[in-house]
Amino acid sequence: MRNFVMSALAYSLCVAWAAALGQTATPSSSQGAPTATVSAAPASQIIPPPPNYQFPSGQKYVYTVEWHLFTAGNATVRLESSGTEQHVAATADSTGVVNVLYKVHDRFEAWFSPHSFCSLHVTKHTEEGSHKRDTTIVFDYARRKSVLDEKNLKTAELKHAQNDIPTCVTDVVSGFYYLASLPLQTGDSYTFSLNDGGKTADVTAKVEARERVKVPLGTYQTIRVKAEAISGPMKGKGSVFVWFTDDANRTPVQMRSKLGWGTLLFRMQRLDKQ
Predict the structure, then answer these.
(1) What pLDDT is recorded for position 235?
(2) What local confidence, expressed as pLDDT, does residue 260 receive?
(3) Is 160 a domain residue?
(4) Nearest alpha carbon to residue 170 among 152, 182, 183
(5) Contact call for residues 78 and 102 (beta carbons, < 8 A)
(6) Which domain holds residue 89?
(7) 212 CB neighbour count, 10 Å cutoff
(8) What pTM did the predictor assign?
(9) H or E segment at 253?
(10) Most buried of 225, 237, 256, 259, CB within 10 angstroms?
C-alpha cells in the first residue's frame, strides 16, 4: 500500500491532468480537425495556451478519495498567479482505516510558464508510512536536463540525479491544467510527455464521450477523457479517467485511477474561490 493516496493522485494528475511530464501534444480528431500521422509512437507536443486563455487562478479543488466504497483520503489542488509564473499546490492526506494502516501526508508545489505551459520547478514534501522525504526538481531547458535533489528526512541520506528532457515538459500536477486548456472535442487525442525528476514518459489522452455525472458538489454535464502512459516508467501501470465540465471552465469534477492494486475514485466535494 506504499504511496497509497499520493501515488495515485500523482499518477492521475500526471496522466490525466498532464498525465506525465510534458513534452508536446498534437491533436487528432475524427470531426474535421487536423489528423496526426499514424505511427507506433505518436509525436509528443505541448501546445501553448491561446493568447486570451483564462487560467482558473484563485480556485481550489477539494476532493474525497474513495477506494472499494471506503473513504481513503482527501486531496486538494489550487492554482494561483505568482509573478510571471503560475503556481500549483496539491495535497493528499489519508483518512479513516487507511490512515491507521498507512498514514499519508503529502504536499506538492509546481511552477510553470503561463505562456508555454512548460514546467519550471517542483517541490515535494512526502510523509508516507515511515518514509519522509523532501524533494526539489528543476527543469533546466538550456541543458535539456531535469535536476532532482532529495533528502531522506529519516536517515539524512541525499540523492542527486539528472535526466534528459525535451524542449518543454509538464509535471504531474501542472499537466492537469494543460489538459483542461485543450479543445477536448469527442474523438480528439493528445500525446505529450511527463517528467517527475526521472525518465520522461509519453502520455496519450483521448476524449471519449460526453456524459452526465453526479458528485458531492452537484450534477454536471461533462467530457470524459482517458489518459495512459505509452512509454517510460508509467507504461502499462494503469489508466486514468477525468470528467471535465462541458463548459468554458473545464472543471475536473471527477477522476478515476485504475491501477494494478485497485481503483481510486476522486469526486469533487467543494470548489473554493478567492
Answers:
(1) 81
(2) 63
(3) yes
(4) 182
(5) no
(6) 6-273
(7) 10
(8) 0.83
(9) strand 252-259
(10) 225
Angle (CA) 85-88-89 rounded to 5° is 140
d(C-alpha 10, C-alpha 194), whole Å: 11
CB-based contact 196:121 (threshold 8 Å)? no
- Indicate whether 78 pLDDT > 80: yes
Contact 253, 213 (CB under 8 A): yes
User: How far is Cα 244 from Cα 224, in angstroms, rounded to an integer?
Assistant: 7
- Terminal-residue alpha carbon distance, the chain: 35
Cα separation of 39 and 204, whole Å?
13
The label of the residue with cell 466504497 reads 69
Q: With 0-12 CB in 10 A as exposed, 13-18 as middle and 19+ as buried, what is 204?
A: buried
Whether 191 is covered by a domain: the verdict is yes
What is the predicted pLDDT for the residue at 7?
43
pLDDT per position as a tens digit, 101-157: 778 889 999 999 999 999 999 999 999 888 999 999 999 999 999 999 999 999 999
Length of the chain as a residue count = 274
Q: Which residue has the cell 481503483?
A: 263
Most distant CA pair in the chain: distance in Å?
56
250 CA to centre of own chain: 15
Q: How far apart are alpha carbons 270 and 218 in whole angstroms? A: 9
Residue 238 lies in a domain: yes
In a domain, 1, yes or no: no
| Type of residue numbered 180 | A
d(CA 98, CA 211): 31
**For the chain, what is the domain count?**
1
Q: Which amino acid is at 83?
A: G
Cell match 489528423: residue? 35
pLDDT at position 42, please?
61
pLDDT value, residue 124: 95
Residue 33 has pLDDT above 60, yes or no: no
